[in-house]
Structure to design on (1396 residues):
């Protein structure tokens, strides 16, 4: 691309960004298809928008006024180019309207009607035309096939479901693939006593996608946290890169639909090891997102993170003060199960807390105060002041006579600045006033033991993810290697991996028995003899691998057997030194159509494959990524000298995983690479078998 | 035990049961330690109970009247033996008070004060005395160390936390180990628009435990569902037997604290395969309980099951009708991930539904209506009438203008009698009236997509568990075998298993080289040669196992190596035929100190052990139990001909697992038995190694 066209592209990008802000925070709106007939969408749209404080007009071929608002016959006649045009007209008229809107300088359009990509080929064609108009002109398009958006700060209710106009303004933003989920999350946020800065359903997302809105919200001063709902992710790598820029500025919590997804088929086992849901969750996590499992958790975690955020840190220590032992036990259990630290308080803190409480209460952390008494606020204060503690969770059932949550928590929050979250339950009439006081203090309150656990996990996960992101070195420039052409047999695959610093056992590729014999004499015994035919991808399954060959008799037996396997090159064998014992892993990398190069690590063997015990991350990887991937394996015990296995050299595994990521980045023509098994012991890691698959087009 | 003492014991049991009902649904109450001083517990107790409509009196050495209620100096002076005595006196006075209460014929006592087992030895001694009084007299004791109970139908608020007197009456019962959790769950039930039949916190549970209250509630006409919270379970087998009797009559939902539990150490690998949390969850599930993971899910599932219950069935088919596609996708995803069937509707139903909806909507199941229109009630009706469908879930955001939930769901519920649950979200002001209408119709309403999933899962789990329970044959009488004495080496262990119909490969136990040579000649080659020393429990780890021995040279090599292993019997070896290839499982049984005999099945190999992929059930097992255990293994694919493994004969696995359960029941002196590995292929199952461990006392 020339510098000139680069500059032009950058200018269009600036226009697109500005137009997205105009669309979602409009000062002027036109309703196309505005109607006086109350059964028409155009009438409902005018009605919903009637309280919009900015300029609202209709576009209608004949009417001059609808519901008291002026009407114009077309875009060209509008007195000014409106920020947002709402299209309440049938699908087949939308393309022309979009073109007209773009020509008049409208910022963005929102299409109410369905009948596009979700309905078949004809609709998809319309959608493609809309996309083309947007791409060329910088016009932005929300939808089609969505219930729209609500911007309460702007009093813009561009959504036509009753009740949504009552959603309060606040600092939580919602971005949902689905309009219905957008509203579900928004109602849940309202129920938690919080409000919205923006709530948008993307629908078919022909133009405006989650990455666009995320980028915009990163700069939005009214947004303190973002709740994100995803179904499929067509442009995963773009979303990943966007999120890595957004999450350091605003916490993002996400819910990903499709966990029942079975995963796609791929040539290698690596592909089968990871489903598309796992890929999405892994990529989001890697980009600093807190991933949760339900709309309720999504709303709750976003509301908590909108109040408070922990500074980036490798691990955080939580203090827990509870007025009741039983719920306290559930909370500690939940935190520990999620891997959140609840360490013992410092001796000085324990002494101070002990002085405030009856003997026999448990004070080391959690602090179980028994029924809250007058010393409760000071207990919270001492725990918050403990240098070992990064954040404090407090649980107490509603007892207005003995516990005023604001009086108990605010002093500690104000004096230490550490995040504090209150968990409680009680009759609403008793609770509501107390919780409103707390919210005014900046302390989030959640209603159940498990929601307090969720709050702690969300604060910790967010902080740890940012700590990791901040440590990632810049990705640097990519050395694109010389383009490789196929086919890749095992020997050539290992040779390529060798150039990336990945070791494999000493070996000779031999044609004919004499060559095999010579190789056998040169190599360290015992050896493995394997078929080396390009047309046999799964060597073991055809009986083409002979382990532990120690003498000439064994060698001849192996060569005889291999010679009987049907292949075009029956006399080609690989003679290889037997590797020392160790733990077997499978390490691979695939080029995902959405997320780009991903690295997968799993434990070797068919059980690992059957239980899909694997971890996946997007390349390029940092050392920490691989460490975390290994920690996340259910069978990770095997790496640390389990039973009579050797302890694994984790640095060697890291080196291999990083190299495979780099290989896929530097060689776009490779679609998959797999080392299966990678044998690891205290001495290092050896690729015992390797497979490189080139993309079909190369 | 003589017939006479049996009769006496049964009479005491009857008294205990009657006294428990008197305690928890009293007609008369005495507060011991009643006080005019408002700072005293005895004053708070009188105050909380002041609205009790039955007879309320105080017991005080001097006062004649407190807060307007008559007082008596001691139990003996009471005009009648009250049903419940609330003891608001220090711990050290409670034992005498309990004895006096029992002597006066009081039904039960509830001790407010702490200072018992939870505080150390002196408190534990007091507790033991209380237990002894209860055991001898039939007096019942709630607590100590609990916040008490609430029986709203009886207007009895024997709990002294503000707000609990406002908890409404209803048909959900709560039984919690912890007083604080009891109140947490009760508040959550209230929040869902439901009410309580009884809510009790057991505290130290010296006398009244969960099994007692469960048994009582099974007969309680006001209770429709029971929410159970457990921490530790000291008398697991009693609870298990009770639950098997209770769950067919009333649905029970349970939350078990302690999932971060690490599990106990045991001699065999079997013991390490299952933690105590897993054991509890498995036992409850087997007894027909729906186990959930949070207080919110506990309250929600109990409220749903209190409305409706599916008839016992092997699997249930759910229909889903949704007004919004996005939430519908989350719901189907959740149901499928939980293993709940959402099958395609019958062609006739599809046709009927299609006629009511715009083209292009998805109607096969889920039925996505798009925005609800006038046809919505008929769509629900058609889905409910489909013969393939057992229950219907309906989701729709609150849109009072277009969707009246009661009008949409009630006709289908009334005409088909099938369970129907409504899921929704919206502004409370719009929702509350609509949901109250629905509740009056007997249709539960839940607020979020995931709560609708939970409702479906709870209905299905409950129904399937009852189907399984109903099919279990009576356990019959136990044949106690001749008492076995140790030690058990591999050969003797296999011999014992053989008497239970468990096969193992042909073998000879040999002392000396000549015997081994003779065995080698008689057995089918190749053979395995193993050390057979009672003082070597882990043969492989000392290098005492030689596989694939095919000739005399190999045999001698194996014998030489084994002879060098330090043991008191170096010349004892087991020569055994090599088993054919297959999948390796570990099948064992342990005698749990709480739950009694449990059977464990896991996949073999160290990875399976490292990832703890196992299933556990209490013996005796039914065939269905073993089938479900195998289905629950994460690596279950390995059983069905995965890669180049043979398909496993599941009937053979069932036979082995059932036999191990029977073995532990018939031989109380055995503490553990383990087959590791059990090799299984299409032909059957062979125990390749076996270990029998006797209890230390035998």
């Amino acid at each position: 691309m020339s510098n000139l066209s680069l500059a032009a592209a950058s200018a269009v990008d600036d226009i697109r960004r500005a137009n997205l802000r105009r669309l979602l925070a409009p000062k002027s709106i036109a309703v196309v298809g505005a109607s006086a007939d109350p059964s028409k969408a155009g009438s409902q749209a005018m009605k919903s928008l009637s309280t919009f404080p900015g300029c609202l007009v209709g576009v209608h071929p004949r009417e001059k006024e609808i519901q008291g608002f002026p009407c114009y016959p077309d875009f060209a006649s509008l007195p000014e180019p409106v920020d947002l045009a709402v299209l309440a007209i049938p699908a087949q008229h939308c393309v022309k309207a979009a073109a007209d809107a773009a020509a008049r300088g409208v910022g963005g359009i929102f299409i109410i009607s369905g009948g596009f990509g979700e309905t078949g080929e004809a609709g998809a064609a319309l959608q493609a035309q809309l996309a083309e108009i947007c791409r060329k002109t910088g016009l932005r398009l929300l939808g089609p096939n969505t219930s729209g958006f609500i911007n309460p700060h702007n009093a813009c209710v561009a959504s036509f479901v009753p009740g949504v106009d009552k959603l309060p303004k606040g600092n939580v933003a919602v971005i949902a693939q689905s309009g219905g989920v957008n509203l579900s999350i928004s109602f849940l946020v309202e129920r938690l006593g919080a409000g919205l800065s923006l709530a948008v359903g993307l629908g078919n997302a022909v133009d405006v996608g989650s990455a666009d809105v995320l980028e915009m919200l990163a700069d939005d001063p009214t947004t303190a946290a973002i709740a994100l709902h995803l179904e499929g992710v067509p442009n995963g790598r773009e979303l990943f890169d966007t999120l890595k820029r957004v999450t350091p500025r605003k916490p993002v919590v996400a819910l990903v639909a499709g966990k029942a997804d079975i995963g796609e088929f791929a040539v290698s086992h690596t592909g089968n090891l990871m489903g598309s849901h796992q890929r999405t969750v892994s990529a989001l996590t890697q980009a600093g997102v807190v991933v949760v499992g339900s709309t309720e958790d999504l709303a709750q975690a976003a509301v908590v993170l909108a109040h408070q955020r922990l500074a980036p840190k490798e691990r955080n220590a939580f203090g827990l003060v509870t007025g009741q032992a039983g719920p306290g036990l559930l909370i500690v259990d939940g935190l520990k199960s999620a891997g959140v630290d609840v360490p013992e308080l410092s001796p000085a803190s324990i002494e101070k807390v002990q002085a405030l409480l009856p003997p026999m209460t448990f004070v080391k952390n959690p602090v179980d105060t028994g029924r809250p008494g007058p010393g409760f606020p000071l207990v919270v204060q001492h725990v918050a002041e403990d240098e070992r503690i990064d954040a404090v969770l407090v649980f107490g059932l509603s007892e207005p006579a003995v516990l005023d949550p604001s009086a108990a928590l605010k002093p500690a929050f104000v004096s230490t600045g550490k995040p504090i979250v209150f968990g409680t339950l009680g009759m609403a009439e008793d609770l509501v006033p107390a919780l409103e006081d707390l919210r005014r203090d900046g302390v989030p309150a959640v209603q159940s033991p498990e929601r307090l656990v969720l709050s702690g996990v969300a604060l910790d996960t967010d902080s740890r993810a940012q700590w990791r992101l901040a440590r990632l070195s810049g990705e640097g420039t990519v050395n694109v290697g010389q383009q490789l052409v196929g086919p890749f047999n095992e020997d050539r695959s290992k040779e390529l991996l060798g150039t990336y610093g990945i070791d494999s056992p000493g070996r000779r590729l031999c044609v004919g028995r004499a060559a095999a014999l010579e190789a056998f004499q040169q190599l360290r015994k015992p050896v493995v003899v394997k078929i080396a035919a390009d047309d046999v991808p799964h060597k073991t399954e055809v009986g083409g691998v002979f382990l532990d060959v120690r003498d000439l008799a064994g060698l001849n037996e192996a060569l005889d057997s291999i010679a009987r396997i049907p292949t075009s090159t029956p006399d080609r064998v690989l003679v290889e030194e037997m590797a020392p014992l160790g733990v077997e892993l499978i390490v691979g990398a695939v080029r995902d159509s959405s997320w780009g190069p991903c690295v997968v690590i799993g434990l070797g063997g068919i059980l690992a494959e059957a239980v899909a015990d694997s971890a996946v991350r997007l390349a390029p990887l940092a050392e920490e990524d691989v460490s975390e991937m290994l920690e996340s394996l259910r069978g990770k015990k095997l790496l640390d000298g389990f039973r009579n296995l050797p302890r694994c050299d984790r640095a060697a595994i890291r080196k291999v995983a990083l190299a495979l990521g780099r290989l896929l980045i530097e060689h776009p023509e490779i679609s998959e690479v797999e080392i299966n098994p990678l044998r690891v012991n205290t001495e290092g890691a050896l690729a015992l078998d390797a497979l490189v698959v080139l993309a079909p087009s190369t």
About this structure: Chain A touches chain B through 82 residues (CB under 8 Å). The longest helix of chain A spans residues 449-471. Confidence is low (pLDDT under 50) at residues 262-274 of chain A.
